[in-house]
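Two proteins were folded this term; both appear here.
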Amino acid sequence: MEVSIQGEVSPLTGLFAKIAADHPNPLQSPQRMEKQAIQQKIEAYVSAYNAFDVAGMLATLHPSVQFKNIANGQVTLTTQGIEAFEAQARQATQFFRQRTQTVTDLRITDGQAEAAIDYHGVLAVDLPTGLKAGDTLALQGKSIFRFQDNLICSLEDIS
C-alpha cells in the first residue's frame, strides 16, 4: 500500500500505512492486554481466596500491598505490606469452614478494577457478634483493586 502526499510517495508514510493496514488499531491491543492481565490477576486472587490458598493469594500481591476492609461505612481492618496481609489472611482462614467470593461484575478503568462481589461463608467458630459456628454469612459488596508492577498493590473490600 502506498500513500501519496502532494503527488509524491513517501516511503516512510507508506510503511506506516502498511502497518496500520496490518494492525487496524494498534493502540487497542496493549489496552486489551492490560485489562486481560488485570482480570487474570483478580481471578487468580479470588480463586486462591476461595481455596484457602494463602500462598496463592500472596503470589498476586505487591510486596507493599495495602489492604482495607470497610463494613457499613466503617474501616474495620487495615494492613500495610505483604507480611501483615499474610498474617491477617492466615488468621481469617481459621474463621470459616467454607468461603466463596463470586465476582458478579468487573469494571476496569485506568489500571484499577472494581469488582461487585457476592460473598458466602460458613463459620468455623463462634463470633462475638452472636453468630455461631455453622452459621452462614452472606454479603454483597465490592472490592477495589489497584495495581503496580503487574501485582495488586491495594485492595479495599467494602460491604
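Next, the second protein.
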Amino acid sequence: MLGIGMQEIILILLVALVVIGPKRLPEVARTLGKGLAEFRKATEDFQESIRKDIQEEKHEEFVKKYPYLEDGDKASETTPRKEGQAAPEDPPADTEPEPTYKPEEIEGGVQPEKESRDG
C-alpha cells in the first residue's frame, strides 16, 4: 500500500491524534475518507472517458480503412465482389440445420460401430 508499513501508519495516526485532538479526529477522518472516495470516482470517470475516446478513435480508423464494413446489415450489398459474382443469399429461416450426429446413437443408446484393426 504505497510503500507505507504498519509502523508508519501508527506514527501518522498518533501525530494526527496529538495535532487534531481526540474530539475532532473522527470528523477529520470521515471528511478525508469522503474526499478520497470522490477523488477515486473522478479518477475512474476520467479513465473511462479516455478509454471511450480511444475506442472511438480506433473505430473511426477502422471505418476509414474498411468503409464497406461500416454497416453490418448492408455488408453483403457493399462488399466488393468480382465481376459476375452474385450476391450471397440468406438461408431460409424455417429450415433446421442437419445434425452432425445420428439421433439413434443418443436416444436409443446404440453404440457406434468400431472399426476392427485386423489386417
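The chain has a mean pLDDT of 77. The radius of gyration is 34 Å. These notes refer to the second protein only.
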